[in-house]
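Comment thread on ticket #2218

A.B. wrote:
> Attaching the input chain for the structure job we discussed in standup.
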Amino acid sequence: MIEDYGRLPGQLWLDGKLLPWGEAQLHVLSHALHYASSVFEGERAYGGKIFKEQEHTDRLIHSATTLGMEFPCSGEELSQARHAVLEANGIVDGYVRPVVWRGSEMMGISAQRNTIHIAVAAWEWPSYFSPEARLKGIRLALADWRRPSPETAPVNTKAAGLYMTCTLAKHAAERDGYDDALMLDHRGRVAETTGANIFFVRDGVIHTPVPDCFLDGITRRTAIGIAKANGIEVIEEVIMPDEISRAEEVFVTGTAAEVTPVSVIGQHTYKPGKICRLMIEEYAKLTCG
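C.D. wrote:
> Ran it. Output below, let me know if you need it in another format.
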């Protein structure tokens, strides 16, 4: 477990050059800190290669553009930065975090003159959930916080501000002895966990919520492709909370979580079965060869 991400050894990339980790700083009056004008990506390197790298680049650019930020480099420069950071830190299998944010030239709601900054960091990170939790299946609480309506937030981006309620929901779940929380959307429909998409298995068919107010995750789309390639039907549909008890298997997907089974949602229990095992195995083959 990393104790302080601000004190890691090695180097990261900031605004076009590699710097010692501790020298990569931003001002306390950066707009991103006060007004959440920041977007990011979560990526994994397997064998020195970024999984779905172009998709992550496209989404980061989309997120920044949606928040009115002119992307500060080309996609090719970003790719070079990722791999430079991995090489500089000797990381073959790890987590990669590009982030784009507004600087400190203006302090207030308006930020038209603020410089747009970009950084890339990477570290070794084998699994988002503990090995014990992942093998048994993680335990999810039911969150009080909900995912917002598309009319109230840029829900199809990885904007930093969208994760405030996720942190609140995850902290509440962990205080109650759970690993994470299942969040509903603004209409009371099943949405996602605090950092991953969710899938339910019934009678050999996979059901997953329609991503109309939360991210259609890159790993989510990968998992759907794996399932279909293995002859498993996938239905994207509205799922209400009273339907989750009908599932036989449940799993979540995300760059950090990869494919992780779920053993508990609130008072409901599940046993990871053949579909969970198949999804884990096939995803590992896809990412690790």
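A.B. wrote:
> Thanks. Noting for the ticket: Helices lie at 31-35, 53-66, 75-88, 131-136, 164-175, 218-229, 274-288.
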